[in-house]
Structures are given as structure tokens and as C-alpha cells.
# Entry
Amino acid sequence: MLLEEQIDLMKEEITAAVQACIQIKSVKDIENASPGAPFGPGVKEALDWTLALGNSFGLTIKNVEGYAGHIEMGKGELLGILGHLDVVPEGDGWSVPPYSGTIRDGKIFGRGALDDKGPTLAALFAMKAIKDANIPLNMRVRLILGTDEESGWDDMAYYLKKEEVPQIGFAPDAEFPVIHAEKGILHLELSKSYMTSFPHLVRIQGGERANVVPDRCDVTLKEISYTNLVNQLKNFSFPEGVSGNLESQESEQEVKLVFKGVSSHGSLPQNGKNAVLYALRFLRTLPLSSEEKQTLDFMLTYPGTGFYGEGFGVALSDEPSGKLSLSLGILDLTSENLRFVLDIRYPVTYQRDDVFLPIEKIAQSEGFTIKILSHQEPHHVPKDSPLVQSLLKAYSDVTGLEPFAFAIGGGTYAKVLPQGVAFGPTFPGEPEVIHCPDEYITVENLLKTTKVYTQAILNLAADVENQ
# Structure
């Protein structure tokens, strides 16, 4: 029996596994962390569940103190497949419960369906298919299960200290055909305090994670005419998908507004509609104090101008990886303090300081304290490398589609390997739904991805080709 036919027969099993994994809310929860569950009980449950599934397939498993785990088969040098089981918070705007694994119109909906539970399980079932077919391997194939990819990679830092590191492999956590270059990722926090309290701005809060374009911003105002707010909201021109509404009038002095936009991955701010920036633009139309207006103008001029760093003067670009991107991921402004976080993805031929120093200069001139929250160096594997060529062949042979290698702004676990690339699961031309409401993977693409990963493992780790 051909392996592709074998995978087709596993359709219901693969689909049910992805649904079950989605139903585990594996959002990082440090407040409820414990020994063996460093990122909270939900993440631990997802890791334990996936390891148990691998064990049921007759594969070797290991739990690395709850920071990560792996599932392994074969003998020889290591081929790494690096997925993750943690997910970003669900956010608003879902048409189905975000942790239901609902199937509708041939799509499995749920947070993590595409990022990254679906493709991680596709890789696991690819390993199962090869094992069940008794195909000999000349490498150990190790599926590494990360648990903190969305927040800080503390899982990988721990795992890499404790376990053998593959020299070659791929991360099923981006797009097909093959991503051979990943931009550097820089998360910056800027903050400052004010000498006197603002007369009107009580609180502006939007965004939960630096790497997600905020789809909601909550604003509390005081001593602003309620009638004026109603009229301004009615006359303000919001684009499609963006809204601003009076949520409540908590007292005669304070009024709450809620602005909603469209979320997207932080590396693709142009694909979202940042609720925080639209809130700031609306607030700028109100009769505020000069200091309040100056604060809003700073935000709208620097992080609020363009998607590619134009406001800070860091609109860098290169041939291998394209343009820098800059997204305002978090804003928390009170009447006395301002804090915001930037998500920046810079091209592979540039250094961190090419980006950081110009922003630091502007921040300091405006009285801000600037802090580097996290930084990942750029990563690049040549297009003509055996790894890239083997994966491109697997992709082309299974799908019949044109194989090509390209660069992205998103950062994947491929960066932790000396020779690592990102490989799937989104196919060319498909909508970008990672980190968005109604995230989904189609059942058809789930099976196709499993077949591609099966052939990729054979190309890299077997002496025989799939017949």
C-alpha cells in the first residue's frame, strides 16, 4: 500500500486528534505554574496528551520537566522536527467556541489549529505512517514539542541545555514551500512617567502579546461631554472591520469606550487593523489638554506611521528577506504613566543595533526609558543547500505545485538549529489566519501536509523512496 493511501485511511484518526488537542486551552499561565508545569496547567496537559499519543504509536517519548518533550524513532544522527503546543490567547471575534475544534465546511476551527497543533500532529502521524510501513531509516527522527514558542522561548532554552541538539531539521510552523530565511525579531518596551495627572485620559489599554496586532482597545475618559463623544463617534470614519462604541457611562465623570479592529500576526501588521491606533486617532479629535495631545501625537507619529518602521526612520530592506516590519503590540496608558511594546522584524543582512540605536535616540529625546524585552538573531540557510532542496522535492512531488524558497518575518524554532528551515503548513495563496479569530486548518490540507512531511522525512532520513 502506498504511504499516501495509508494516510488517507487515517483521515478520521488524524482529524479527531487535532480536534482533541485544540480542546486543551494551552495558553501560558505563569500564575498557576508548578513543578513539571512551568507554563501552567493547560500547557502541561497539552504536552502530556501529545506524548501519550506518541507513546500509543509505539514511539519513544520523553518529558523534559514540563519545559518540552520529544517523540522519536529510528537510529543514527538526529533529524529534528520542531513544533509547539502552546497557543496565543483566543481574542475576540470568533464565530465558534475557540477551543471547540468545531468542523464546518471541511475546516477544523480553533486556536492552535494552524499554529501549531495541526501541523505538529501532522508530523507525528507522518512518523506513524513510516513506522507502520516498516520503512528503515538511517537517521533518528525526533519530533520536539515546544511549550513557550508564543511568549519567550524559555522552553527551548531549557531543552537545549538538557538534550542533544539536532544539527538539521525543520519547523512545521509557517508556510510552504520552504522558508530559508527568517528575519531578526526585536521586542522593545518604551515607558515614561508624567509629572502631573492627565485631566481627561484615565486609561487606554490594548494588546495582550507583543507578537499579535491588537483587535481591542479599552479607553476610559473623564470630564468629556457625553454628547460630544456620541457625535464624534458618529462622525468619525472607521474603515471596514473597525468600530468604536460607548460601552458604559460608569459615572457622571467617567465614560468607557471600546474600539475593535482586526487581529493578525505581529510580523504582518499590514494584514490587521490595529484597534489601539484607531482608538488613538479617534481620541485625537477630542478637546484634550496640550500634554495629552502631545502624547497621542508621539504615538501616532512614531509607532503609528506605516507598517515598515517609517515613523522611527528604520524602514530597512534587503534582497534575501525584504522589508522590516514594525507593529505596536501592547499599549497601557494611565493618567500618570505610559508603556508600550513594539514587535520589530528586521532583514537578515542587518544587525540589531541598526534598528535599536535610531529608536533609542528618539525614545531618549522624548524622555522614554527603553528596554529590550527579547531578541532573536536573523537566520538564513542557502537555497541550494541539501536540506532546502530535499524539502522542496518532497513538496513538489506530493502536491505537484511549484517549489521555491523564500523569507518571512515570523520567527520559528528553525532558528535554534544550525541547519533549520520552516516548512509549512500554510499553502501559497491561502488566507492568513494564524493568531486571527476563526483560525482553522482544512481537513484536506491537514492530510496533504501529513503526506508532505512523510515524504520529507523519507528524503532526508531513509535509504529508500516511497513507492
In short: The mean pLDDT is 94.
